[in-house]
């Protein structure tokens, strides 16, 4: 899994970056074969420093992508919310993919 974390007009402390890396690797480890590159971008929201945003874009193998964006009063919370949502979205996408594959396999077996 390739992982890129950057702040856009926003400083991300090395400690925060390390925590995010560890959490993402833990969360995404169980889907290792499905996960390609993951890009996290943290930036100020439309109200400037009053809100912070985190956007996560994850490429899936063999194809596809999941994109999440969350806003919170501080960047650590925004990242945390985005990672939580990413985990739920990934579980849903992979569940649908497995169900589709099972349906195709059943149809092919009956023809």
Map the helices and strands:
Blueprint: E1 2-8, H1 14-28, E2 35-45, E3 48-60, E4 65-72, H2 75-110
Parallel strand pairs: 1-2
Antiparallel strand pairs: 2-3, 3-4
Helix pairs in contact: 1-2
- According to DSSP, the number of beta strands is 4
How much helix is in the residues? 40-55%
Unreliable stretches, pLDDT < 50, 5 or more residues?
A: none
Q: Could you tell me the strand content as a percent range?
A: 35-45%
Main sheet summary: 4 strands, mixed
* Beginning-to-end CA distance, first to last residue: 38 Å
Structural class comes to alpha+beta
User: What is the global morphology?
Assistant: elongated
| Widest beta sheet: strand line-up | 1-2-3-4
- What string, H for helix and E for strand, traces the elements in order? EHEEEH
General description of the model:
With 111 residues, the protein is of the alpha+beta class. Helix content is 46%, strand content 35%. The protein contains two helices and four strands. It has helices spanning 14-28, 75-110, and strands spanning 2-8, 35-45, 48-60, 65-72. The chain has a four-stranded mixed beta sheet with strand order 1-2-3-4, covered by helices on one side. A hairpin with a 4-residue loop joins strand 3 and strand 4. The longest helix is centred in the last third of the chain and has 36 residues, at 75-110. It is elongated.
